[in-house]
Amino acid sequence: MRNPLIHSSSEPETSESYRQQKFAMSLSLAVGFLMLAGKTYAYAITGSAAILSDAAESVVHVFAVSFAAFSLWFSMRPADQSHPYGHDKIGFFSAGMEGTMIVLAAFYIIYEAILKWIEGVPVQNLGTGTLYVAAAGAINGILGGYLVWQGRRNRSLIVIANGKHVLTDSWTSVGVIIGLLLVLWTGWKPFDPILAIAVALNILWSGGKLIRQSVGGLMDEADPVLEHQLRSILDIETEKRGLWYHELKYRQSGTSVWMEFHLLFPKGSLLEEAHWKATEIEGALKAGLPMTTHVITHLETREDHDEVHAKLNVATH
C-alpha cells in the first residue's frame, strides 16, 4: 500500500507542469521570430545602430529559446542507467548558453555602434522605426513577465532564464526608443550609437548574471533561502518526535532538490519505529517544499554516535 504521508508529484501534475512550460516556450519562440522580422525591417528602413542592437538581441533570443525548448524537453526525461539522477540539470547549461549568447550579442552591438559613430552612417525614417520598436518592446514586456511567472510557478530555471532574456529585450527596446527620440528632437545623430552602446552594456550585465547563475547551479552552490526552509521544517519535525539531526546537505538540479541528513535516535530505539519516524519526516519535507524533493536519511543513535564515527575514521585512515 502506498504511504499517504509520502508526498510526491503525480504523473498528471508533472504532465500539466510540462504542458504549461512547453506552451510558454513555444509562445516565446513564435513571438521571437515575429520580433526579429519587425526589428530587421525597422533597421532596413532606418539604418539606425540602436535598432540594429535591438535586432541583434532578437537574433540571439531566437537561437537561445530554441536551445531552451530542447533543454526543457530533455530535462523531463526520466532517470535512466546513464543518468540515475535524471536530466533536469541541463537547465543550468541552457541558462549558461543563453547568458553567453547575450554577452556575444552585446560585444557585436558595441562594435557596430562604434563603427557607425566613426563612419557617420545617416539614419532615416526614424518615426516609423520608433513605432516598430515601441510595439516590439511592449509585446516583449508582457511576454517576459508571463514567462518568469510560469517559470517560478513550475520551478523551471529554463523558463525563468528565457523570461529574463525577453525582459532584457524589452528594456533594450526602451533604450533604443529613448535614443531615437533624442535624435528626432535634437537632430544630433551620435545619440543613436551612444544609446546603442548603453543598451549593449545593460545586455552585457544581464548575460553575465545568467552565466553566474548557471555556474553556481552546476557547482552546487548553497542557497540560503532554500536552506532556511529545509532547517525550519527539520527543526519542527524532529523536535516534536524527540529526535535530532545533523550533516544536512542538499543540491538543486533545476526543477528538483536532492537532500540528505543524519537522524539521531535515542539508544535502543526499534528499527521499525525509527524507520517510520524517518519516513514521516521525509514526507513532511516533500509536502512543505514547492519543488520535487528527494530525501535520503541516515539513521543512527545519539549516545554512541561520536564513538562509532571515531572508530570508522581510524579504520579508514
Give structural notes.
The protein has helices at residues 11-46, 49-75, 90-119, 126-153, 157-186, 191-218, 224-239, 271-288, 305-316; strands at 244-252, 256-265, 292-301. By secondary structure, it is mainly alpha-helical. It folds into two domains: 11-218, Cation efflux protein transmembrane domain (Alpha-lytic protease prodomain-like), CATH 1.20.1510; 224-316, Cation efflux protein, cytoplasmic domain (Alpha-Beta Plaits), CATH 3.30.70.1350. The protein has a three-stranded mixed beta sheet with strand order 1-2-3, covered by helices on one side. α1 packs antiparallel against α2.
Spatial ordering of strands, largest sheet = 1-2-3
Query: Into which percentage range does the β-strand content fall?
Result: 5-15%
Radius of gyration (CA) equals 26 Å
β-strand number: 3
The residue fraction in helices comes out at over 70%
Features:
3 strands, about 325 residues, disordered N terminus, Alpha-lytic protease prodomain-like, 9 helices, Alpha-Beta Plaits
Question: What would a concise description of this structure say?
Answer:
With 317 residues, the protein is mainly alpha-helical. It folds into two domains: 208 residues, Cation efflux protein transmembrane domain (Alpha-lytic protease prodomain-like); 93 residues, Alpha-Beta Plaits (2-Layer Sandwich). Helices cover 71% and strands 9% of the residues.
